[in-house]
Amino acid sequence: MNKFLIGLVVVFILLWLPYFIKTNSLKTISETDIPEVGGWAPLVQGNLYYRWYEPEISNNEIVVLVHGFSTPHFVWDGMKEFLVDAGYKVLVYDHFGRGFSERPSVVYDQDLYVESLKGLLDYQNISQSVHLVGYSMGGPVVGYFTQQYPDSVKSISFIAPAGFMKEDSVSRIAVMPVVGDWFWQVFGKWLYFREVRNEATSSDDSVGLSESKFVKKYSAQMKYKGLIEALLSTVRNFNFFNAKRMFDKVGDLKIPTITIWGTDDGVVPFAGSSELMQSIPHSELKIINEGKHDIAYANPSVVGNTILEFLDKQQKF
């Protein structure tokens, strides 16, 4: 019996030690950690980081860029200048739990993401309708927002939108209590960067983000407490897999829409584009041959110019 208890203690220590090492050195993000450019929007759930990019000569149109599951606003660094140079005011922000935003202990479901976007627009006193761009998980965030606040949306640009993914074994582990928390704290970074390598594109885009630069920028947010918890809560509470009903309702609104997708996307399979076009048949579809899930930052010239052409077309009507 004593040997059994000793064995249990040893196993517990072996399991607990890597978890302790991973979490003990993390710090709580504060206002002193955010860049001098941009700021915190004090929303109900916490402080949300945002930043404006202003053109020299504005056309008075606003584009809001909504990033995906885990990569914060730097994912837009390569493509945003195409919009700014053309006269668009561009607003970027980090979802709660990511980047320079706070990591509140809340349920990370669609309501949180929709209401944080609405709260940011209200805090910025934006009353005009805006152009929304949603990448990956940002796609359904934009979709749910549009469904709830259609008068606030002038156009929609989807980039490889989630909502058409297939649940795998790793996802099932993530939803398990305790086990999922331990697993992602200990192995999450390794698994994520393995996925990044799998989705890395050999791009010759001069403003694209290389794999090494991506890893460096992404790792900066991992020194703060709450990232893994926010990602886990999102996996457990946000619908990545079947958002057809929402997309159907967005399609009924007839808001100008474009969808950009890579044929070799290993995260949100390109086959989902057919389902999306059934839901939003008036959407334009731009296909990037051999493009993977990293098209927003690996092929920013193609993506940026495609969205710019789409937006400019809306100004003629």
Note down, in words, how this protein is organized.
There is one protein chain. With 317 residues, this protein is of the alpha/beta class. The chain has one domain: 3-Layer(aba) Sandwich (Rossmann fold), CATH 3.40.50. The chain is 43% helix and 14% strand. The chain has an eight-stranded mixed sheet with strand order 1-2-4-3-5-6-7-8, sandwiched between helices. Helix 3 crosses helix 4 (138-148), helix 4 crosses helix 9 and helix 9 (244-252) packs parallel to helix 10 (272-279). The longest helix is centred in the first third of the chain and has 23 residues, at 2-24. The radius of gyration is 20 Å and the shape is globular. The protein starts with a helix and ends with a helix. 42% of the residues are buried. The mean pLDDT is 87.
CATH class: Alpha Beta
CATH topology: Rossmann fold
Strand content is 5-15%
Low-confidence stretches: none
Mean pLDDT: 87
Structural class: alpha/beta
Individual helix count: 12
Q: Spatial order of the strands in the main sheet?
A: 1-2-4-3-5-6-7-8
